[in-house]
Design brief:
With 368 residues, this protein is mainly α. Helix content is 45%, strand content 4%. It contains 17 helices and five strands. The chain has helices spanning 4-13, 46-53, 90-108, 113-122, 138-147, 151-160, 181-187, 191-202, 206-213, 227-233, 237-245, 260-269, 276-287, 299-304, 306-313, 315-322, 329-339, and strands at 58-59, 64-67, 74-77, 126-127, 133-134. The protein has a three-stranded antiparallel sheet, with no helix packed on it. A hairpin with a 5-residue loop joins strand 4 (126-127) and strand 5 (133-134). Helix 10 packs antiparallel against helix 11 and helix 15 crosses helix 16 (315-322). The relative contact order is 0.07.
């Protein structure tokens, strides 16, 4: 729904995906822009102006808003004038699509939470298979909030609907029948929203917690990668450390048999050596959590090209990684210290580590 050209590209990558997920499957850095990013204002932009300027309204019936006024309540039409017509005809489906796009655009324009929730629960937005219609679920609304970095809306959904906000989206919304919220947060580098999702996951039963943290993505779109794989592939040190600190498994393999460490090493080997500082920071964070006897696919390649990898990683990192020397006392101590922090206290407890500030892994200043 984010744009015609992008929709075609996304559907080529994932044939049975819905246009609703057009922008959700677009790689990070794509042309998704909010009102400050130079995006062209459309004819529906009056919704944003109305929501910002008008006092809060109450709904008293489908398609109607009632404005509190000194002389009593008076009806106020919705800005986009969507009127639902019953039945499964073409006109109803057209209006459903128009209403659906209005909600997408309202989230993109970072409209107030109360406005978005009234929109989400008031009108029929989805056109399901077999002519069934449905409103957006909290899970689907959270994916839109992730893409457009609407932090207040994401916080509201995760606070009010902690389980349903992380549930699996409907089939008409996503071709991948698993909850992709962690992967989407990493893809778009939404560190603060990722932090709140991880806190919500900690409140779930242990089995559900692991299913969310170690969820493997669509084999066609994400190659079976976990959110940790994606943090390594996209070189997101903050996302990587948050995932590891909250219990994401560092040894799982994707569809190609690669661990997150293999994925990161592939990024480090890419020439020219761009963003090497961030890549090595990811490596150091990951190394604090992986077991010493980790078997990874690229180990033999490192041994066969020893000089090249020593230049890329540094001699000490190379020696530790291939098992030619034990980690330094500092690395060993950091492994012990970080693993003593319970997921529910991560990353706040990093501040309490008995280390100088400049030796701490990352300066994560996040609100609890």
């Amino acid at each position: 729904m984010g744009g015609r050209g992008a929709g075609a590209a996304a559907n080529r990558r994932c044939p049975d995906s819905s246009p609703v997920l057009t922008d959700l499957h677009r790689p990070a850095g794509g042309a998704i822009k909010g009102p400050r990013g130079g995006a062209r204002r459309s004819r529906l932009s009056t919704a944003a102006d109305t929501a910002r300027a008008a006092p809060r309204h109450r709904r008293r019936g489908p398609g109607r808003w009632w404005e509190a006024a000194p002389g009593g309540a008076r009806p106020h039409a919705m800005p986009w004038s969507v009127r639902w017509v019953g039945g499964c005809g073409a006109q109803s489906q057209k209006q459903c699509k128009k209403s659906s796009f209005a909600f997408y655009q309202a989230v993109r324009d970072l409209l107030p939470v109360w406005f978005l929730e009234d929109m989400r629960t008031m009108e029929v937005f989805h056109w399901e298979d077999g002519g069934k219609v449905s409103v957006y679920s909290p899970s689907e609304a959270l994916l839109y909030a992730l893409v457009h970095d609407h932090q207040p809306y994401a916080r509201h959904l995760l606070t009010k609907f902690p389980q349903s906000a992380l549930a699996v989206p409907s089939q008409s919304f996503s071709c991948c029948q698993s909850a992709p919220h962690l992967a989407m947060a990493v893809r778009y580098n939404r560190v603060r929203v990722l932090f709140r999702i991880l806190k919500a996951i900690q409140a779930l039963p242990p089995g559900d917690r692991a299913a969310h943290l170690d969820r493997q993505g669509c084999s066609r779109v994400e190659g079976g990668k976990t959110a940790l794989h994606m943090a390594c592939e996209l070189v997101r040190p903050e996302c990587l450390l948050l995932l590891l600190g909250h219990g994401a498994a560092p040894c799982l393999r994707d569809s190609a048999g690669n661990t997150p460490l293999d994925t990161l090493l592939q990024q480090i080997s890419h020439m020219p050596a761009a963003n090497m500082r961030a890549k090595l920071l990811c490596f150091d964070c990951l190394f604090f959590f992986v077991p010493q006897d980790l078997k990874f696919a690229m180990k033999q390649q490192l041994l066969d090209n020893r000089q090249q990898w020593q230049d890329l990683l540094g001699e000490n990192r190379f020696q530790w990684l291939v098992g030619l020397a034990p980690p330094s006392l500092f690395v060993g101590a950091m492994r012990v210290l970080i693993r003593t922090i319970a997921p529910e206290h991560f990353p706040e407890a990093l501040d309490n580590l008995p280390l100088p500030h400049f030796l701490k892994p990352l300066d994560l200043k996040l609100e609890s």
